[in-house]
Amino acid sequence: MRIDRERATQVTVRDQPAKEHRRTRQRAAVDEVLDETEDFISAQELHALLRTRGAGVGLATVYRTLQTLADDGRVDVLRSDAGEAVYRRCVREEHHHHLVCRSCGATVEIAGPTVERWAKSVADQHGYTDVSHTLEIFGTCPRCAA
Amino acid sequence: MRIDRERATQVTVRDQPAKEHRRTRQRAAVDEVLDETEDFISAQELHALLRTRGAGVGLATVYRTLQTLADDGRVDVLRSDAGEAVYRRCVREEHHHHLVCRSCGATVEIAGPTVERWAKSVADQHGYTDVSHTLEIFGTCPRCAA
DNA sequence: TCAAGACTGACAACCATTGTCAAAACAGCC
DNA sequence: GGCTGTTTTGACAATGGTTGTCAGTCTTGA
Ligand SMILES: [Zn+2]
Ligand SMILES: [Zn+2]
Ligand SMILES: [Zn+2]
Ligand SMILES: [Zn+2]
Fold it and tell me: How many Cα atoms occupy the beta-carbon half-sphere of B133 within 13 Å?
């Protein structure tokens, strides 16, 4: 089994800061949607959205763009219940995790030294090196619980 | 977006203990493989393995069986890099997480009140209820690092 | 302006997973 | 053992997200 290092929310190791990419209309369009969107969105949803706006972008291009953004650490990725990859432009640049509402998708970015330390120490105890981790918390947000 | 509550490693709420299922040759075969297998294995891999052993089981049946086991909390599930679901029979019955070697797949089950408390408190702080979480740690195990 | 190379998009291909449904297997009962 | 209602199975089709293809287009830097 091979674990996905790129797509999972994890400790981002930014060795090569960010390879330059060309600025194109399509990438700008995807970027814009991501900026406006609070919740995680799938490639398919983003593609459909762009379509309705007139600024159509090829589906393959949407996928490629999101992949590039994820590789560069500019968006976070996690998987919906259907195994579909969903993307989100995040406020924090640094490593963080998410507290997501199961019902409406409302997301809070969370971070803290507690878990980071814990994860590190657990890995150390077992002699594991080059460590990363994935962590997401799900629940019902106050609004949906009301 | 809808988050998967069933397939992700999380706080298992075992309300209805375990609905009875019929014992069949196919389920026994799947069970046996899971018992022998240390690492996470995908439905496809398991199916192929059963095939080579002669004790063939339909692919759909393998999927259904693994799904049932996962629903009953008898196997843990996470996703490989390809987004493929991978399964593992775990030693601990209670809630736990995994420390997985990215290279060879060697897995250590981990658990601790620290993260559980932290996750709970974070959720509480933001008013989220009915909380669950997913957490996996990846790294290079001592053997592979050597 | 111009060439080199990156980017795009329509479409096909891929592949894990799920749906279908008649045939077979199971469990409990006589 | 047989009977019977129910569950389970499996071959196959269908679904659906994602990636591959590749000729044509666009960016960029000189
Ligand atoms: Zn984020
Ligand atoms: Zn972290
Ligand atoms: Zn486990
Ligand atoms: Zn936990």
Answer: 25
